[in-house]
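Listing 4. Sequential folding, example run.
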Amino acid sequence: MISLVKAAVGGLTVICRTHGHQQDHFLSRILIFCPLSFLKDVVLPEKPKLKFLNKVPNLKQAKKERKKLRDIQGPAMASNTFTCGQYAIVAMGGGYLHWGHIEMMRLTINRKIDPHTTFARWRISAPYKPITRKGLGQRMGGGKGAIDHYVTPVRSGRLIVELGGKVELGEIEHVLIQVAKKLPFPAKVMSRESLEEMHRKQKEMEENNQNPWTFKQIAQGNMMGIRKVLSPFDLRNHGRFTGKFHFPGRV
């Protein structure tokens, strides 16, 4: 709606300049009939742009860690719902975000959004998980390598960046799609309504399932001794996740 109003105002501005009329009269007439009542409750923060996230955490002594792939497996238990924005980039799979990905998102979004009408907020933490690496040409052994860089683990269903303000999805969707395509895991641009619709469809699919043999029933009944080859991860998520990959169509 706002984009259509801006286009109409721009066209009338050109007509006014061509015929030498006053612009205020036409703009006031248009704004009377604009249905912008849904934007009255929107409050822009003092700093609307994405803040800079540190490349290295501020630690007294850096400690090495194991891989711990469980950090990117399964569904996200935190930051999986909206807080103050209307649109967001949602991860549809697990993966690690490097500092370069975070800087790419920050620079792209801060350059493309209008700070007078739009704000953006991080829903992820700065890189904190250490990744070690050995130099080229080194022989095997010798212990664990030195810390090379830090990453941020992300699980499926987590919100990466949240945007809001006096703006519609059509005005910033192309920017968010451009950012989502460059992430190291599948991501999707969603609004509050589309996220709720996705959860509603998943719940409806589980309630109206006509197949009597679901993964949960087969695993709990231990049919043909299947519990021997299933991990606690499979029993907890009922086969909807395989590592960092998510199967949205599986009940």
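-- end of first protein; second protein begins --
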Amino acid sequence: MVATSTLKTKSSECISELVDRRYKQACIEKELDFWNHCLAEPQSNAAVTEDRTCQQLAKMFENCLSRAKKTTLHCSSVLVPEKLTQRIACEVLRLASCEPCGLRGCVLYVYLEMDKGCKRLERIVYDATVVPTFELTLVFKQDGTAWPSLRDFLFMGTCFAPTFRHVLKLSPGFRLVKKKLYSSSAGTVVEEC
């Protein structure tokens, strides 16, 4: 069934034609209700889809930090400011919105800015079946104002290697760098948030 703006809503003529084709009337009415809702509120459906994508992207960032905690960062926990991954996800979606393939054409490099430079955490490809059209580099920032706890001082050098950090706290700020891959005239966009 195809819904168009000229569809007569639940008209007896339309329903009887479909019943004659052996469709169940309850199923027909349910379909018509769905399409009427879609036609009446197209913006709300797009907003729901965008919100769901934003949540999935935020979860990908959280999983990336969780994996990096064990492998790259060598710490017991990473403290992430509330809503940071959601803010980043919304910015990524905004930057991807003007691309030919949208988010599907994105390759995302995730780094953590530390005292001694940046440490690469992960490379995320949103959709591996699509040829990348742009790259985003996300740089999480370490919170430099956080004082190490007394427990960290006591553990240093006793049970753990000197490079071990017990807790890593992220700053609410981050940096996103966008690089287009398909255009030679396009420059690099740097966004500091």
